[in-house]
Amino acid sequence: MTRSLQDIIDANPEAETFRFGDSAELSAEILALVRSGKKTATCEAAHHYGDKGDAWPEVGRRDVALEWDGRPAVMIETVSVETRRWSEMDEAFVAAQGEFRDLAHWRKAYRAYFERTGGWSEDMKIMCERFRMVEDYAGRAR
Asked: Which of 15, 72, 76, 90 is most buried, judged by most C-beta within 10 A?
């Protein structure tokens, strides 16, 4: 049985909803990595959180990643969250994101992403989250 987003939120009232990426194609690629277990970390510019933005991830909170069209895709649980500066990113965190060959590839891709979604600077703060997939609404639970 397919669960509606409202049913999922009613059962998890603390959950935030979000989309990975900034396009349907990128979102689908990232969700495939999450579902395969290759992606267990993500990051976002810290300025997207706070009073006018999303709620900061919290360890233990379960959130719902959406398909680009708004259907529930997966539920993830935050395992750790920290703030880093752009220059503090390391190979281990990049590897946990599952999308990049190395730190140089990450820097190129994320600089372009940050420039598209609100700005990039050498000293910008980045929210770095590690997570585990709890449920795949396409039918697989963890």
From this structure: 76
